[in-house]
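User: I'm curious whether this sequence folds into something compact or stays loose and floppy. Could you predict its structure so I can see for myself?
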Amino acid sequence: MNGPEAEALAQPVVKDVIMHEVGHTLGLKHNFRSSTTVTQAQLRDKAYTEAHGISNSVMDYNAYNLPLKGEPKASLTNTTLGAYDYWAIEYAYKQLPAEQESAELAKIAARSTEPQLAYGDDFDQGVGGPYDGFDPRSNQRDLGDDPLAYAKKRLKLSQELWERVQARPANLGDDPLRNRRSVADAFRQLGMTANNVSKYVGGIYAERVVPGVTTGPAFKPVDNAQQRDALRFIASGLLSSDSFKFKPEFLATQTVDYNEWDRGLPLSIPDAVAALQGRVLDRLMSPNTARRLIEQASFLPESQRKGAVSLNEVYGTLQGAIFSELKTGAEIDRMRRSLQREYLKRLQAQLNRSTNGATAYADAFSMARFHATQLANELRVASAKPGLSVETRAHLAESLDLLNSMLKATLTRS
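Assistant: Here's the prediction. I'll summarize afterward.
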């Protein structure tokens, strides 16, 4: 950390932070969509990123522009103001004669449809509550014009980092917590990505429509192909134990901080994976996502409704990926048992609590119950298969008992 490479990164990071905070002092809000106005090819072009930065606004929370193995290296962080920053400051501060001010400001504002001036604030990104950030283009810590492609890259970046730290030899004088922090930080970054990519499923593109200035729909469901691509990536990538492989010899050497009173416990990969996967389940099994999946057909022309992604498709894909061992007869390891329990917790919330009497929620309840009944039957069949370990049989019995209790319980309405 005291070498020239670290210093070469630290200086642009400090500059980036100062530009961002000065932007706030001048009145600018966050712009969490500006990172999508730079292409993947431009991000790999060192000359481009040095001249234009990695985003069209310093008011975004950008990810670092890290290359995968074999990719060219460009600027890691923002190096200059972006097109959006110049445009917003021009509108706010340009000196204009009083008699021309209204017309000139209208002319500047009319440029809002230019692609490099795309804008999404904190609410667009998702500040919690009913407005959960349903447009997958407005995110914190993503990069490039294809957030779904970046999510896939982020998983590969984390896996490359985990491979490196496991192969890195310990040398005299090394920080004993370095590898542990690297593993944890990769999970932290991937956790934000998990939330971002989950926005595609049941997602809606949102545009600010101003009569007489902009045209087109204010809301449009995310393309079916992209929703399904995101769902496949979640099922085969983020929900798969194969994505998170660590050598026992490595884990056994990861020490705790003996200088701290709260020194922590041995490094637990299953716990880190459970937290990551929980973020995916929270969004995909939320009432807001269910409502959007149910209602998105009303935003589509009649000819496009038949092929729309349905709530049944999402719940079925999710449940099938999480409980894939029921069909294969494979053992269920600790990481998978944890994922299945987290799924059942959220299923229980769907089946036994109602916070909304709207029709969309009623439809989501009936669909959740339908899949829960199917799962109970699959658990019953799987429990009878011979040759399973005690741990797997105990888990299947517990899961089946919990599911049966859910299906028999009275719905609590509020």
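Summary: The mean pLDDT is 94. DSSP finds 17 helices and four strands in the chain.
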